[in-house]
Design a protein that fits this description.
Helix content: 10-25%
Number of strands: 8
Largest sheet: 5 strands, antiparallel
CATH superfamily: Peptide deformylase
Number of helices: 3
Shape: globular
Structural class: alpha+beta
CATH class: Alpha Beta
Distance between the termini: 34 Å
Strand content: 25-35%
Radius of gyration: 15 Å
CATH architecture: Alpha-Beta Complex
Strand order of the largest sheet: 1-2-3-6-7
Mean pLDDT: 96
Low-confidence stretches: none
Length: about 180
């Protein structure tokens, strides 16, 4: 039975460490972690979650874009486990967009990201996947990949003027 995991917050040193490659995708530990992350991201109204956010130093995250309370305009997609992910190529175009983070509650930042990326990852089935991601889903992938490298969105903002409280964000951008 999948378990709801505790999301660690900014200040916990695990969030600042580079996560380890997953050697055995099919192991019970990794498959259980995927199941638990799927439950945790849904319960937390997130659109993505990385293993380091639940204190696991594995190069693994979930991309789970869907409309919810925190992101009412998010596109709908099947939640996808991405193991040992990497960016193969990216567009020349960068765009700024608002991001929040389950590990940094109460704050959003306007973060510059590549608009389109070509990515590669291993699925939970052990197969290698390649795809192009754009716009919001590309943003989620880049945000979660940063977590695997010990980077949080606050490290990417260009100015503290690009920060806003969650409450003010909800007031200004009600969806």
């Amino acid at each position: 039975m999948p378990e709801l995991l505790e999301v660690i917050e900014l200040g916990n040193p695990i969030l600042r460490h580079k996560a380890q490659l997953v050697e055995d995708v099919q192991s019970n530990r990794i498959q259980t972690l995927v199941e638990n992350l799927l439950v945790t991201v849904k319960e937390a109204n997130g659109v993505g979650i990385a293993a380091p956010q639940v204190a696991q130093s594995d190069r693994l995250f979930i991309v789970a874009s869907r409309p919810n309370l925190r992101y009412p305009a998010a596109p709908m997609m099947e939640p996808t486990a991405m193991i040992n992910p990497r960016i193969l190529a990216h567009s020349d175009e960068t765009v700024k967009g608002w991001e929040g983070c389950l590990s940094i509650p109460g704050i959003r930042g306007e973060v510059p990201r590549d608009r389109a990326i070509e990515v590669e990852y291993t699925g939970r089935d052990g197969k290698l996947h390649k795809q192009e991601l754009t716009d919001f889903v590309a943003r989620i992938f880049q945000h979660e990949l940063d977590h695997l490298d010990g980077i949080v969105f606050l490290d990417r903002i260009e100015s503290t003027q690009d920060l806003i409280t969650e409450r003010e964000y909800q007031r200004l951008f009600p969806g």
